[in-house]
Amino acid sequence: MPEVKLVNVTKRYGRIVANDHINLTIKDKEYVSVIGPSGCGKTTLIKNIAGIIEPDEGEIYIGGRLVNKVPIEDREIGYVFQNIALFPHMTVWDNITYGPKVKGYPPEETESLAREMIEMIKVAARADAYPDELSGGTQQKTAVARALMTRSKLLLLDEPLGALDLKVRAALRYELRRIVKDLGLTALHVTHDQEEAMSISDRVVVMRRGRIVESGKPLELYMRPKNIFTANFVGEANFLEGKLDRVTNEGSIVDIGSGLKIMTRDKGMKIGDRVVAAFRPEFAILGKIEGGNTLSGNITDIVYSGSLVRIYVELPNESRIVIKKALRFGEPLPRIGEKVTVSISPENILMYPYPERGLRRELSLE
Ligand code: ADP
Ligand code: MG
Predict the structure, then answer these.
(1) Cβ partners under 8 Å of residue 21, min gap 6
(2) pLDDT, position 284
(3) Which residues line ligand 1 (CB under 6 A)?
């Protein structure tokens, strides 16, 4: 029952606080992803749990046992490192069975487990191949199999798909999750790819500058981010600065300047407070909807990306919003320069207090 619990875990490198009072519990059999900008402390977090480094402060418990002083080999952890690191001069089979052999585990047991793992990762036909004969995806699956040979019920994955092509990444996501769920493992998966995190895990933890910003189920985090940084980091969002104008039974009305007002269902701020209204580009549509907020403006840009199109609209208050829609065959799209009306339903507008440090700094990825 490898529940992992971190209490006030702090790790400093000189003046950098790489992990700053981290409190986190990963439940038994839970698949948790940690996302955050580069340098926010994700790898440090994994190294703390694995025992590669020791925190300066705080306690780490695995399965209820305090492990701060327990060396890595006694923590019973499967660890997949940030960069593919198979032994190049060894076959898949030898890579997978190396650890147990070194530890002197009974050979029959090791072999049967290795066969099971190879079956699990579906590289059976290639057990005698060398890493450079394998695709990146298969190499990475082999690294997962090797980590699982520790018989550990706790799997730590540090950007396990980071070095792979987009399509391979997407396919391997589902395989990773399947393996973890089939074997009843507890997994902590670090990634800078929010889409990967959303699609693979039971819960997503957002980190920034050594701290946890918030955590939640993928859809919750996407639909109702509690923190404005999360709203920006997970998915895309439009942010409109304004002042709280009025509060009614239906919600709050925000004055965003130049006579423009938008209503949100969110409440909890005082009249006159500086606030930021936020909405996702795909929750806004061109045209009018009943009960929706309408904003009119001119199209400044149209950007295609595969099946989606982003339409940029400049509002009379000089802010620019983007709306995102799926391309549909035969459907005419508006043109640059055209005046359009954009509608957003009040349910889809979130309201945040204006950040003390300013909006731009609050959203920055550093
Ligand atoms: P992430 O994995 O989220 O990109 P890391 O945990 O690797 O972030 O790093 C967090 C911060 O700690 C960064 O500022 C990084 O430069 C610093 N850091 C990490 N490891 C070391 C180290 N061994 N020595 C000095 N600074 C380090
Ligand atoms: Mg890292």
Answers:
(1) 8, 9, 10, 57, 58, 211
(2) 96
(3) 13, 16, 18, 36, 38-44
